[in-house]
């Protein structure tokens, strides 16, 4: 955008609107808790009833989507009027989105079962119906539709220029209540840099988490295993739960005790990965990772718990948005690139390398390799090549809206060797 000032034409960058989300702990009263629980149940009731209508309509009218609102359900079931109407409308919108995605594939969304669905609902900001009220430094409230004033713990400040968009109230497995506030914020557009002086590469390692090319950010198995370290305690508490009567006071108390253990592992994982991703994004101009299909890997060779425990996918997501905010880039190398089987010295591919082989010697040049360390060197070379090609304007590369640089639809057989799970 250009504007003329004193006869001179100056280029002025127009601000862009981005979404920002902040989560806070809330302490509702018992009456407010009961209303929140009612809202969870009403949202589940609306989802199941509207889903049944849409499935029946789609079977008769192929390719057409029924778009009814919860209004007719309120006439038949007056208890739906006791809860926030925006929560029911957002449930309908989420259902419509799920149907549009799954119906063309011959599938349908799942019905929600009591006790198994996510205990949360979303309400929108309309005419200042959601407002934060400051009493003192230690006493703050948030005004919510139907609930009124709810005690909130503001552990961080919210900029005055941010505009509130919607709020999501949820209950965790341990019985704690949180609210996620989403805002619209106007920021200066961050131009993605084209010169990269410091570049880091990460190779996924199943025994630990990642092996870095610099060697300064290696993560060993002693640093992680958040769920595994609590697994024995969780098994013990779940065994107690299995002997209790469903729905009793002791049952729910034990259920929350198990939830606290799971949340403890999750909190430790998030804290560690946030600190690691912040350190890496502040230090390096670009980070190179491999595009592993973690979902398929979790189903192979009983890797499920280990894959979900180390949080490699979460680390990639954190790196992508933290690098993007600084104008930096996360490079994803194609999953079929033979990083472990290629010699980093002469680029000869060892087709006979097995998954269990942690070290190997190149038959062509005689170089002895540590499998993970060799993979990081190959990923670093490949990533730097991608960055150079992208800086020169090559059309086969594209930068996604989340700040990830990758190649356009690489054919599965573009490389002579297919990467094995867990390399």
SSE blueprint:
Blueprint lengths: L1 E4 L2 E4 L4 E12 L2 H31 L10 H6 L8 H18 L17 E5 L6 E4 L5 E5 L3 E6 L9 E9 L5 E11 L11 E6 L5 E3 L18 H12 L6 H35 L2 E5 L3 H5 L5 H7 L1 H13 L4 E5 L25 E3 L6 E3 H21 L5 E3 L4 E4 L16
Parallel strand pairs: 10-12, 12-13, 13-17
Antiparallel strand pairs: 1-2, 3-7, 3-9, 4-8, 5-6, 6-7, 8-9, 10-11, 14-15, 16-17
Count of individual helical segments: 9
Tell me the number of strands.
Answer: 17
- Rg calc: 26 Å
Number of domains: 2
Could you write a compact summary of the structure shown?
By secondary structure, this protein is an alpha+beta fold. Helix content is about 35%, strand content about 20%.
Please characterize this protein's 3D structure:
- The protein is an alpha+beta fold.
- It has 2 domains: 25-186, no CATH class; 199-223 and 265-407.
- It contains 9 helices and 17 strands.
- It has helices at 30-60, 71-76, 85-102, 231-242, 249-283, 294-298, 304-310, 312-324, 371-391; strands at residues 2-5, 8-11, 16-27, 120-124, 131-134, 140-144, 148-153, 163-171, 177-187, 199-204, 210-212, 286-290, 329-333, 359-361, 368-370, 397-399, 404-407.
- It has a 7-stranded antiparallel beta sheet with strand order 4-8-9-3-7-6-5. A 6-stranded mixed beta sheet has the order 11-10-12-13-17-16, with helices on both faces.
- A hairpin with a 2-residue loop joins strand 1 (2-5) and strand 2 (8-11).
- It is globular, with a radius of gyration of 26 Å.
- The relative contact order is 0.10.
């Amino acid at each position: 955008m250009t504007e003329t000032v004193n006869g001179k034409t100056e280029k002025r960058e127009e601000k862009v609107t981005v979404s920002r989300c902040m989560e806070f702990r809330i302490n509702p009263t018992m009456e407010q808790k009961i209303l929140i629980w009612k809202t969870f149940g009403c949202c589940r009731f609306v989802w199941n009833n509207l889903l049944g209508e849409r499935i029946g309509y789609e079977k008769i009218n192929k390719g057409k989507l029924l778009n009814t609102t919860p209004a007719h359900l309120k006439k038949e079931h007056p208890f739906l009027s006791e809860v926030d109407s925006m929560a029911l409308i957002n449930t309908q919108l989420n259902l419509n989105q799920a149907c549009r995605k799954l119906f063309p594939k011959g599938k349908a969304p799942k019905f929600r079962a009591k006790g198994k669905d996510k205990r949360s609902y979303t309400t929108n900001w309309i005419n200042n119906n959601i407002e934060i009220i400051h009493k003192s430094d230690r006493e703050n409230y948030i005004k919510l539709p139907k609930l009124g004033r709810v005690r909130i713990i503001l552990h961080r400040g919210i900029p005055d220029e941010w505009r509130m968009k919607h709020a999501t109230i949820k209950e965790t497995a341990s019985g704690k209540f949180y609210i996620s506030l989403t805002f619209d914020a106007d920021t200066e557009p961050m131009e993605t840099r084209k010169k990269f002086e410091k570049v880091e590469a990460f190779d996924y390692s199943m025994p630990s988490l990642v092996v870095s090319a610099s060697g300064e950010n290696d993560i060993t198995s002693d640093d992680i295993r958040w769920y595994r370290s609590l697994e024995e305690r969780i098994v013990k508490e779940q065994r107690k739960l299995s002997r209790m009567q469903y729905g009793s006071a002791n049952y729910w108390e034990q259920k929350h005790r198990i939830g606290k253990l799971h949340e403890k592992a999750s909190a430790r994982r998030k804290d560690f990965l946030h600190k690691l991703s912040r350190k890496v994004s502040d230090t390096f101009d670009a980070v190179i990772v491999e595009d592993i299909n973690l979902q398929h890997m979790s189903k192979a060779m009983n890797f499920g718990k280990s894959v979900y425990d180390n949080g490699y996918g979460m680390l990639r997501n954190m790196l992508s948005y933290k690098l993007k905010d600084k104008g930096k880039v996360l490079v994803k190398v194609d999953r079929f690139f033979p990083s472990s089987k290629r010699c980093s010295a002469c680029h000869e591919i060892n087709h006979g390398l097995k998954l269990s082989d942690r070290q190997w010697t190149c038959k062509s040049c005689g170089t002895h390799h540590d499998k993970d360390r060799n993979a990081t060197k190959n990923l670093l070379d490949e990533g730097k090549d991608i960055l150079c090609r992208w800086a020169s304007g090559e059309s086969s590369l594209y930068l996604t809206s989340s700040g990830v640089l990758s190649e356009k639809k690489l054919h599965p057989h573009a490389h002579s060797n297919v990467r094995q799970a867990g390399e």
